[in-house]
Specification:
It contains 19 helices and 18 strands. The protein has 3 domains: 304 residues, Catalase core domain (Catalase HpII,  Chain A, domain 1, Beta Barrel), CATH 2.40.180.10; 81 residues, Catalase, four-helical domain (Hemocyanin, N-terminal domain); 153 residues, Class I glutamine amidotransferase (GATase) domain (Rossmann fold, 3-Layer(aba) Sandwich), CATH 3.40.50.880. The chain is globular, with a radius of gyration of 28 Å. The strands form 3 sheets. Strands 1, 2, 3, 4, 5, 6, 7, 8, 9 and 10 form a 10-stranded antiparallel beta sheet that branches. It has a 6-stranded parallel beta sheet with strand order 15-12-11-16-17-18, with helices on both faces. Strands 13-14 form a two-stranded antiparallel sheet. With 692 residues, the chain is α/β, with parallel strands linked by helices. The structure holds CIS-heme D hydroxychlorin gamma-spirolactone.
Length: 692
């Protein structure tokens, strides 16, 4: 479907305004003559209140900010659409999941959780993955994360958990980081966090790109079909580009070099027409199987191993349009886990139930009153008619005398609709019990799935997890607290606890670790799709570069949808051997290898000397090497690799095994470029530096 045909885009068109070629006016439409000076008594005299343009402009400015989200403050949105591969009518009557001819418009907002609005993109954190489907039956919001489990089991603990992870009260330090005492204090005193902590200490918390992370609805939801039969369901998003992470050292450097790294990546991909795609997957369970597992399916700290309950791929989301205005769309969008359509319902997961209160409540404050569903980005494409009236910022001009139900003056309209005609009816689950402040015993096992996660990781992923614990706990001031955390994770896996303890001067407890429930290869990022598509290469060159080599390289990269940027010593045009000029996009000053997936050093003695004359060129390559990235060099370019320590003068061959490719000038040909692109597809060459 073309963007123009998209019904939500048409609706938004009614609100889109361009100022191109227009006269400057006040909010009353009055044309403004002077926007340079306030009205004064003489050029050096006092300003006069009569200056309505000044007052209006200043007042609006003074009120331009709204409260940031209490969590997920930093986010980035995009428009897209959803197509269904196969009907799920056996399980649900939701129209957008049963009619394969429908393309459902949607809006996505990715986010970090702990940081403020202006914090950096690449911090260690969970990523929010919220999707608003504008379906014909009303808005359906799938408000998930990039991890399939959560820190706590009951929503009443959410404010405590967030207080613990947010910066500490005396000084609001540290920003956007869990590496501090209160967070780890919470973890050590609330052991239900153990499984989620394993995810947060892994590369899943450092996504290379929003386009390369999975999404999860986390809770167990309910599908209800036309016959009223119910199944349990978990939702998954699977990125077409695979699941890939940055390495820790890289994330910290990127945070300084480009705090908007993930935002920019998504924006550019969409601008370039490389539309990110995520497939929707569902895990479905019969109601009868509710108690067939050694965990409780209502416990949000547990996942359903994909090897036990396969993920069925049923459709695809494509993100194909950037926002026109960040504030109007991304900042004002309001998701709610309780926005459902017929065919989808809740379960009694106590985390989910509690979320149902929080979202509207917080949005009333953030968006200034009860009428935020009327903000263009939040409006459903389905018609809205009810007896809700008035309040701050009401946009709709409701006509007619009645605003109540039941009425006789308006023939009892707007009228409720029977379920056979689309009226939402809650699933009639039978529930019995005493009112009690308690948690089911079936939620008591906090460690088996944490252990499963640990034992399902590859050795490199395990090392990264250990390093993450060592870093985070290394920032914890209280020694006692560090030890308490080691005590807790001694219950997850003995080798994990030992390795953490080794790094922070603590002592593991032996013999108390949980046996993993199962091993789930699907949890490892190493098992995911690999492709070079949309990866970014720094092509380093200087004057005297070989024109044919660079042209052939760029052609091959473009053909494989790999993005390239020319990096030179300065931004001045660079001359090739045959006099061809090329404009570098970046200089050694503006670029850094952490912003690229791979580095290619072109041949040509003069150009390489020029690069080498700037000491940062060797650092550029060295950093790419340390971050396991693909590096290639041709002819004299190899000298730069040697000075970076990426190859030894005599050890060139061995290095080739580890994603470092070198070639003589005459053999820089199509097969060489292909090997380079294949190596980029590997994402990283983890075997380059063997970690303990
Ligand atoms: Fe939440 C925002 C995801 C538990 C309370 N949450 C928020 C967003 C996402 C999630 C993606 C950002 C939406 C956006 O981009 O605007 N939250 C989750 C997931 C959870 C979860 C996957 C567990 C499975 N959340 C959770 C609990 C509570 C909240 C238990 C409270 C009881 N969440 C909120 C909130 C936020 C929010 C305070 C902040 C801003 C907003 O809602 O609109 O209401």
């Amino acid at each position: 479907m073309n963007d123009i045909d998209n019904i939500k885009q048409k609706q938004l068109d009614a609100y889109r305004v361009t100022d191109k070629g227009e006269a400057l006016t006040t909010n009353q439409g009055l044309k403004v003559e002077d926007d340079e000076h306030s009205l004064k008594v003489g050029p050096r005299g006092p300003t006069i209140m009569e200056d309505f343009h000044f007052r209006e402009k200043m007042t609006h400015f003074d009120h331009e900010r709204i409260p940031e989200r209490v969590v997920h403050a930093r986010g980035f949105g995009a428009h897209g659409e959803f197509e269904l591969y196969e009907s799920l009518s056996e399980y649900t009557k939701a129209k957008f999941l049963t009619d394969t001819s429908i393309r459902t418009p949607l809006f996505v907002r990715f986010s970090t959780v702990a940081g403020s609005r202006g914090s950096s993109d690449t911090v260690r954190d969970v990523r929010g993955f919220a999707v608003k489907f504008y379906t014909e039956e009303g808005n359906y919001d799938l408000v998930g994360n990039n991890m399939p489990v959560f820190f706590i089991q009951d929503a009443v603990k959410f404010p405590d958990f967030i207080h613990a992870v947010k910066p500490e009260p005396p000084n609001e330090i540290p920003q956007a980081s869990s590496a501090h005492d209160t967070f780890w204090d919470f973890v050590s005193t609330n052991t239900e966090t153990a499984h989620m902590i394993m995810w947060v200490m892994s590369g899943r918390a450092l996504p290379r790109s929003f386009r390369m992370m999975e999404g999860f609805g986390v809770h167990t939801f309910r599908f209800v079909n036309e016959q009223g039969k119910s199944h349990f369901v978990k939702f998954h998003w699977k990125p077409k580009l695979g699941v890939h992470s940055l390495v820790w050292d890289e994330t910290q450097k990127v945070a300084g070099k480009d705090p908007d790294f993930n935002r920019r990546d998504l924006w550019n991909a969409i601008e370039q027409g490389n539309y990110p795609e995520f497939e929707l997957g569902v895990q479905i369970l019969k109601e009868e199987d509710e108690f067939s597992f050694d965990f409780d399916i209502l416990d949000a700290t547990k996942l359903w191993p994909e090897e036990m309950v396969p993920v069925r791929i049923v459709g695809k989301m494509t993100l194909n349009r950037n926002t026109d205005n960040f504030f109007a769309e991304t900042e004002q969008v309001a998701f709610h886990v309780g926005h459902l359509v017929p065919g989808i319902d809740f379960t009694n997961d106590p985390l989910l139930q509690g979320r149902l209160f929080s979202y509207t409540d917080t949005q009333l404050l953030r968006l200034g009153g009860p009428n935020f569903p009327e903000i263009p980005i939040n409006r459903p494409i389905a018609p809205v008619h009810n007896n809700q009236r008035d309040g701050m910022h009401r946009m709709t001009i409701n006509q007619g005398q009645t605003s109540y139900h039941k009425n006789s003056l308006a023939n009892n309209h707007p009228a409720p609709v029977p379920t056979s005609e689309g009226g939402y009816r809650h699933y009639e689950e039978k529930v019995e019990g005493r009112k009690i402040k308690a948690r089911s015993n079936s939620f008591e096992d906090h460690f088996s799935q944490a252990s499963m996660f640990w034992h399902s990781m590859s050795p490199i992923e395990q090392s990264q997890i250990v390093d993450a614990f060592r870093f985070e706990l290394g920032k914890v001031m209280s020694k006692e607290l560090r030890q308490r955390v080691v005590d807790v994770f001694s219950q997850v896996a003995e080798d994990l606890a030992e390795r953490i303890a080794d790094g922070i001067g603590a002592t593991p407890i032996k013999g108390i670790a949980a046996a993993p429930t199962t091993i789930s290869p699907a949890l490892s990022m190493m098992t995911k799709t690999k492709t070079a598509v949309t990866r970014k290469v720094a092509v380093m060159l200087g004057n005297g570069y070989h024109t044919t080599e660079v042209q052939a390289l760029l052609k091959e990269l473009t053909a494989s949808k790999v993005t390239a940027e020319i990096v030179s010593k300065t931004l001045a045009p660079v001359k090739g051997v045959d006099g061809t000029l090329i404009e570098p996009q970046q200089s050694l000053l503006t670029a850094a290898s952490v912003l690229y997936d791979a580095v290619y050093v072109c041949g040509g003695a003069q150009g390489v000397d020029e690069l080498l004359s700037d000491v940062s060129s060797a650092g550029f390559v060295r950093e790419a090497f340390q971050h396991y990235k693909t590096i290639a060099a041709v002819g004299d370019g190899v000298r730069l690799l040697i000075s970076a320590g990426a190859v030894q003068a005599a050890g060139e061959k061995a290095a080739q095994l580890n994603g470092v490719l070198i070639a003589e000038e005459q053999s820089a040909d199509k097969p060489f470029y292909k090997s380079f692109i294949d190596a980029i597809a590997e994402h990283r060459h983890w075997n380059r530096i063997i970690q303990p």
